[in-house]
Design brief:
Layout (H helix, E strand, L loop, with lengths): L3 H29 L3 E6 L5 H22 L5 H10 L1 H14 L6 E10 L2 E3 L2 E3 L2 E10 L6 E7 L19 H8 L5 H18 L2
Parallel strand pairs: 1-5
Antiparallel strand pairs: 1-6, 2-5, 3-4
Helix pairs in contact: 2-4, 3-4
């Protein structure tokens, strides 16, 4: 049996851990509000459709990178994407036709759940993010995603956007030190997954 002091120490430790996790989760939530992602869904998982998805990806990254270079924050980036949404849809459909296919594209800016994802030298925690979403044809294939603000998609720019003006020190530490936060990433991902399942009941 644990004595009073031992129980108090365990209770204190649990409270500290809970507060630490809460702070981490809040930082992840704040981080997600500063990011605009790109989400592309292929028509199917056939080899040709998956290769087409990559062709469309490259074209969208190239064209969006041109006008998003003037964005100062997520809100301005999202407004630029909304103002160019129809144009981006046409760019995607033009590339699809250029590759010899006749799929239509559904384009939208939406808020959606993403699992924890590592991109090159950064890691984004699980959570709900605003995203430019392009669905090719029936949209039944594997998807692909990256970050278009700050510009972190390969090919979006010659170099990644300087994130110093976007993220605070805590947020930069989270995205840059995935090994340090590996367990916390998993807990946050589990929490959001559970939350979405409950809300869908």
């Amino acid at each position: 049996m644990l004595n009073f002091i031992e129980k108090s120490l365990i209770s204190g430790l649990l409270i500290v851990l809970l507060l630490n996790l809460t702070t981490f989760a809040n930082n992840c939530d704040d981080l997600s509000t500063k990011v605009l992602r790109l989400h592309i869904i292929a028509n199917s998982d056939s080899k040709d459709d998956q290769e087409l998805k990559i062709k469309v990806r490259d074209k969208i990254i190239e064209k969006s990178g041109n006008f998003l270079s003037s964005a100062k924050d997520k809100e301005s980036a999202q407004n630029l994407v909304l103002n160019n949404l129809e144009n981006l849809k046409e760019i995607a459909e033009s590339e699809i036709k250029h590759q010899g296919f006749n799929y239509s594209v559904n384009s939208e800016v939406t808020n959606m759940y993403f699992p924890t994802r590592k991109y090159d030298y950064i890691t984004l925690p699980a959570g709900h993010y605003d995203a430019l979403r392009l669905i090719i044809g029936e949209g039944k294939g594997k998807n692909w995603w990256c970050v278009i603000f700050p510009q972190m998609c390969l090919g979006c720019a010659k170099k990644y956007t300087d994130t110093d003006t976007v993220f605070n020190s805590s947020e930069k530490d989270i995205i840059s030190n995935s090994e340090k936060y590996e367990i916390k990433f998993k807990i946050v991902e589990w929490f959001y997954s559970l939350k979405d399942k409950i809300s869908s009941l």
